[in-house]
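Q: Sequence in, structure out?
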Amino acid sequence: MTIDWCPGIRDACLHWRDAPMLQQTFEELERALAENNDACIDSAKAIVEVVCQIILQELDLPSNPVRPAEALPTFGAWMSAAVRALKLGDVRHTGFQKLVSQHKKLTDALGELRNDAGIASHGREGFLQRLSVHHHRAAVLSADAIVTFLHQAYLEAELDLVRTREPYERFDHLHRLIDTRVSLRSDVDDEGSLNVNVTLPSGDVLPLRVEASRLLYQLDREAYVEALNAARGAPAPDMEPIEQQGEQ
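A: Exactly. Output:
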């Protein structure tokens, strides 16, 4: 088997490419599939669990949290919490709710298979034979169905723009709305900081002040390092010398 068997997992991992734990788990799944290793069952289950936690980090409201309160939540508890955070239970349609319920049951079954047959998290009898490809396929396809279901629902969810970890590119439609209706005027003050006045359609102005270091650090990290190297040794009137720090 290859990762082509689980396109939904692949798409979710590509979407959350900046999530180190998800990427590490995805790499383990790829390796286990390539080697026909029973550990693919553990990795498939783990990816579902990590995806549930990412969704909760993005959507769980501090004022009304749905994240499991237990110190060590069960696999099913993570899935149920993610479904609640996605507000899938708010869809008043009997057939749809039955499908949601079946995804929860599929999650429970995947967890049971991993607990019974997974090799990565606990030892098993040393002379047991490898599991069949049917076991591997069942686990991976089940995980892929669950991840696809959750990920696609997440893509349609309304995110908190103040605290989301989603990249700038995710919100192109919102950027176009702002860029076509909001204007900017800027100047540089005596301290070398960029002052920007953001004029809203109402005529209200939002003043922003950005230091050169902050602008470069946020927008172009390589340019930041280049500017830092150029600044070292250059005279800075009325300023104390900056203590050298290591950088790449």
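The CA atoms of residues 2 and 33 lie 6 Å apart.
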